[in-house]
Each structure stands twice: as structure tokens, then as C-alpha cells.
Amino acid sequence: MNNSLSKKLNLRINDYPISLGAGLDLNNLNVHKIKKPGFFMRLMFKSFIATYFGSGEYLWAKNCEFKYINDGGEDVSKPNPNMIIPNLGIQSGADMMWGTSAFLFYKDEKLQGFIFQIINNEVIAKICLDRFEKAIESIIGSYQSADTKQKIWIYKDQKLILRYPNENIKHGNIHLLFNE
Asked: For the chain, which residues make up each domain, given as ranges?
């Protein structure tokens, strides 16, 4: 998987590298605050998981950082344009707050898919997805198919989907999965 889409884009959740086909390493995932969800969370997302990945298990990170491509290097004085982080600060006002979550789906202890969400702020979700799209186009080119709700890239055996907020879905999503 050295030439995989996930490696090319250098996707990371809380600095944990996302690489489809990678083995399950619970200790390392826990260090990066990616954990098994509790009972009620598993019930809440059961149909969501089955829709995209069938059976298997998933891990979850709440209000996590999502980094992609180059994270700006060591110079912490410069803002990182290739990062999406939640804004939970009430001082900025309710309309400027948003959360994030990430789901990593495993089957037979191998990573089969990944979903990152920007939640509770449609405007910020669109801005972040547009910025992500522009950044990845220089690496993998333009999307292969699109409609008003989503854009899809296919690279070798992997598929990347950007789902924009719309009248039915109030969140922005980035999906990475094997193309079957």
C-alpha cells in the first residue's frame, strides 16, 4: 500500500496515519485518542456502519484534528492550512462553533475505511471541504464524478468521496474506502 491514496494524501487523525489495509493496533490508536465507542454510540451508528462497510468493528475519535498532505513542518508560528480542527469555544458565538469526528472501520483487523465529519456548522463544513479539495487536486487531479452533493476520486483500488452539506445532511464528510 505504499502508493495508496491515503499515503499520497498523508491523512492523519490526531497525528495517527490513516492507511487503508493497515493492521489494527489498539495501543497506538488509544495514544492518539481513537477508541472503541461506548454501547450507546455503537447502537446509534449501527445502521450507518452497515450501509458503508457491512460487518466489522469501528473506532471513533471525537472532536479530533484532521491533517492532510503537509502539515506545515516544524514552524509552529505559521498557521497550518492543511488541517481541520474543531472550534468548541463558546466565546466565538454559537454560529461559529463546530465539532469534528472520525470513524475508522476495521474488518479482520485491517483498516477498510475512514470517515471524517465536520459537524454542526454547514458554512464551515463547506469551506473546509473546498480547501481540502483544492489541496488534493494538485496531487491526484480533478474528481472523476460529481453532483451537487458529492465529489468522487478513484485512485487505483481506493475511493475518496467528499460529501457536502445539503438539505438532508447538515454535516460535511470525507470518506476513504476501498473501491470495490
From this structure: 31-67+94-108, 132-171
